[in-house]
Amino acid sequence: MRDFLATTATLALVVATPAWAQSTTTASDNTETASAPQDTPAAADAKRQDDIIVTARRREESIRDVPGTINAVTGDQLDAKGPVAGTGDILSSVPGVRFNDVASENLAEVSIRGSGTARATGADSGVGLFVNGAYVGSSTLGGRNFKTLDYFDVARVESLEGPQGALYGRNSEFGVVNIVLAKPLFQSSGYVRDMYTFGLNQNRFSAVVNEPLSDKVAIRVGGEIYAQSGGFYYDPNHKKYYDNTHGWNGRAQIRYRSGDLDVNLLVDGQDLSLPSFVNSLVIAPGTNTAVPLGYYQSRYTLPHDGKDGLVQKVGRTMLTAAYDFGWAKLESTTMATRWRSGQFYGAAIDFATLQGMRQKGELGIYPFTQVHTNVVDRTLYQDLHLTGTGAGGKLNWIVGGEGLYQNDDYRLAINSSPCAFTLVSQGICTGTPTDRVCLKPLPTSANCPAVPAGIYGTDSYTKQRIYSLAAYASVTYQLGALSLTGEARISHDYKTATQFIYALYTTTYTKVPTTFVFKKEQPAFTATASYKIPGATGTLIYAKVGTGYRAGGVNNGSANAAAPNPFMYTYDNETTIGYEAGVKSTVTKGVFVRLSAYLSRTKDAITSINDGCTLTNACLSGGQQFNINGGTIEAKGLEAALDGRWKLAGGMFSLSANAATQRAHFVKVPAGVTGLPVLDSSVAQIPDWTMSASVDYRHPISDKSNVFVNFSYQGQRGGIQDTVTATIPAINMTDFDMFGARAGFNFGKVQIAGFVRNLTDTQIQVLKFMSAGYPLSVRYNKPRTMGVSMSTRW
Questions:
Q1: CA angle, 55 then 56 then 57, to 5°
Q2: Which is the most buried residue in 340, 574, 678, 731, by most CB within 10 A?
Q3: What distance in Å separates the CA atoms of residue 349 and residue 75, rounded to the nearest whole number?
Q4: What is the three-class DSSP state of 27?
Q5: 33-51 CB burial, b ≥16 within 10 A, e <16
C-alpha cells in the first residue's frame, strides 16, 4: 500500500505540474535536446547520425569525429520504431552488437564482437554497462543487463566497440554501452503517454514534466506504471502468466546552473515484477531413456508445481557536476545504488504429467526441481576528471581517477530429490527434512525410505566485496588533418568472496566454507591515428590498437564427485588486445557511411561450461553452469553501416541499415583439464552474421500535423549456443528474420500510433537444451504483439 500511495502521489504531481507551470520559458542549452515520446516534424529532422554529439571519449564531440566504431541513437529515434520493451530494442541498430534475450531480464546480457556471453553464471560481462558515465554492471545474476529503469526517459544511447579499457576500465574489453538519460532543461516541456498492448493486455502509462523554476534552477520529474492482466505463456496450476509485468519506476532531478557551474542531482527507483522464462519439452521418441516414448509440450500452456517469477527493485542516487575554469573543465560523477533481483524457476512438468508418464511405463522427469536466486547489490561509484586544451587548440587532454566499491550478496538455492530417481516403480520423495512427503505416481509405487539417504538440495550463499581504483589519462594532438591519440590507465582491483553451502533446509555444511581473494594491477592502453581528408565529404580514416580486461571471480555452486566435468571454484582475469581500422564519410548529401575491420586476441578467456550432471546419471542431481579460463580466442570481423535522409514526394524518407560478420574460435586450450572447449571450436553466442535496418517516412498533411510510418528489421545467421567440449556437441543457434512496424499521425501536440512487433509471428528457439546429445527442451521467443499508443506533449 505504501508503494501504491507513493506512486499515485508521484504521478499526480507529474500530471498536475502543467497547471501551475509558468508559460514563459528560458533559453535552453544549444547542445541539449529534450526527449519526446512522439515524432514531430522538428524532431524527425533534428538529428542525423553524423551530427549527434556524444561523450564517448569523456568529452563532448561530434560522432563523426570519433576515430572508432561508435553508434549513437537518440530517444526520438528509439521511439520512432516503437515501444522500448528491453535492452535489445536500444541496441538493435548497432552493427556487431547482440543482445542475448533469453526471456528473462535477470539472465539476459549484451555481446559485442567476439565477447560471447557467460549465460547462467556469475561472470562479469565483457561489455561495460554505464548510465550517465557511471558503471552499473556487476558479476551477479541481473548485473550483465540494464534495468528497466535505465531505458526510461532516455536522451541517447552510445555504443562503443572494441577494447575500451583505457578510458572505461574493468569489464570494458570488448566495448561499452552508455545510456545517457534526459536531464532537466531550462524550458517548459514534458509528455504524457498511454500505451496498450493486445494479447498481453498490458497498459503502460508514463509521464514526464520538465520545468525551469528560475533562470538557474530546473527540475525534471517522471514516472511509469505497468499493469497487465494477460499474457501468452500460462500456468494453469497457479492460474497465472509466466510473462507478466507489473509495477512502477520513477525519477526526479533538480539542476542548478550558474555561470561556469552546472550541477544535477538525480534520484530514481524501480519496483517491478517481470516475466520469467519457461521451457517446453521437445523429446522425440527413442532419444531419451527416461521418456522413451517421447513428449512434446505446448509452447504456451505449461503446468508447473513450483514457483515462478522475477522481481527487481532498484534505488539510485546520482550527482553530476561540472565547473569550467577556462583553462580546463572539471567533471565529477557520483553514484550510489542498491538493487535486488530475486527469481524462482523450476521443472518443466508437474506431478500430473509425471503420473501419465509412469502409467506408460516411463521413468519420466522429476517434477519438483526448484531454483531460487536472490541478489542484493550495493554499488558506490566515483569518477573525477579534468579536460582541457592547449597549444592553440591543437592539444586536447584528459586526466582523471575512478573508484568503485561493490558489496554483493548472492543466494542460490536448488531443490532436488533426497531419493534416487532411477526406477519406474519408485515413489517420489519431496518435502523437507521435517515434513517428508512421499507421492505415489502409481497405486503400485513403492514407499519412499523412512529416512532418505540424500539431501533435499543445496543452499549456497556468497558474500563478495570488490574494491577498484584507477587513474587514467588521454592526450590528442592535431597535426593539420592528422590526429594522434594516446590513452592509458592503471587499475588496482581487490576482490574477496566467501561462500557457504548448506544442505537445503538445514544448517549443515555440504563443504567447508571457503574464502577467495583476488588482487590485480592491470594496465591498459589505446593508441589511435586518424586523418580527415579535406573536402565536403569530411571523410575520416583511422587505425587503432587497444587493450582491456575482464575480472575473474568465484563460481557459485558445489562440486559433485561424480560430475563428468569437475566443478571449479575460481577463475582468473582474461585480457584482450584488439586492432581496428575504419573509415567514415558523407559519401553524398544526406548519406553517411561507416566501415570497419577488426582483429582481437583474448587470453585466459572466461568460458561457460556445464558439469554434465543430471538426475538420472551418476550425479543424481541437476547440472551446473560454471566459468573456467578456457584458453586463447582469436576474433575477427567486418562491419558496415549506412544512414541516409532524402526528401521524397513532399515528405522525408530516412534509412538506417547495417550488417556485421564475425568469427571467433579457440586457438589454444590448456592440456590436462577435462571439460574445456574443443580446440578450433567457435565461441558461444556469436552469430556469423547480424544485420538490421529501419525505414522511416513522414509526410506533412498541414502546417501542424503529419503522418508517419516506420518499418524495422533485425536478422541473424549462424553461430553456436554453448561451448563445445568433448562431451557436449555444438548446438546451432536459430537463424531468424524479425520485422516490426509502427504508423500513426501527429496533430498539434497529440500523437496517435499503432505498432506491431514480430510482424510475421516468427517462431525462434532462443535456447535449446540437450540431454545425451538429443533435444530435451527449448525456450521460445515472444510471439507477435500489437498495440496502440496515445500521447501529448508540450
A1: 95
A2: 574
A3: 42
A4: coil
A5: bbbbbbbbbebbeebbbbe
CATH class for the domain made up of 2-416+456-793: mainly beta
Torsion on CA atoms 121, 123, 126, 130, rounded to nearest 10: 100
Pair 594, 584: CB distance under 8 Å? yes
Q: What is the pLDDT of residues 12-54, one digit of tens each?
A: 333 333 333 333 333 334 344 444 444 444 344 435 555 678 8
C-alpha cell at 41: 516534424
pLDDT of residue 118: 55
How far apart are the C-alpha atoms of 165 and 152, rounded to whole Å?
28
Distance CA 590, CA 231 (A): 43
**What is the average pLDDT value for the chain, to the nearest integer?**
88
Q: Which residues pair with 471 in a beta bridge?
A: 401, 490
Asked if 129 and 114 touch (Cβ cutoff 8 Å), the reply is: no
Phi, psi of 577 (to 5 degrees): -120, 135
CA distances from 785 to 26, 88, 99, 276, 708 (A): 42, 16, 20, 18, 20
User: Of the ranges 82-96, 263-277, 622-636, 654-668, which one carries the lowest mean pLDDT score?
Assistant: 82-96
In whole angstroms, give the CA distance from residue 583 to residue 593. 8
Q: What's CA 160's distance to the chain center, in Å?
A: 15
In DSSP terms, which residues pair with 263 in a beta bridge? 256, 321
C-alpha cell at 408: 554483493
Alpha carbon distance 754, 787 (integer Å)? 6
% of the chain surpassing 90 pLDDT:
64
Q: What does DSSP say about strands 395-415 and 370-390: parallel, antiparallel, or unpaired?
A: antiparallel
Nearest Cα neighbor of 489 from 111, 171, 180 is 171
Alpha carbons 424 and 421: distance in angstroms, whole number: 8
Cα–Cα dist 176/186, whole Å: 30
Who wins on pLDDT, 627 or 793? 793
Closest C-alpha among 177, 172, 176 to residue 547: 172
Per-residue confidence at 470, pLDDT binned at 50, 70, 90?
A: very high
Q: Say which amino acid occupies 88.
A: G
526, 166 in Cβ contact below 8 A?
yes
Helix (H, G, I), strand (E, B) or coil at 480: coil
CB 116 within 8 A of CB 125: no
From residue 260, how far is each of 181, 327, 397 by CA, in Å?
A: 22, 12, 19
Q: Strand 70-74 relative to strand 97-100: parallel, antiparallel, unpaired?
A: unpaired
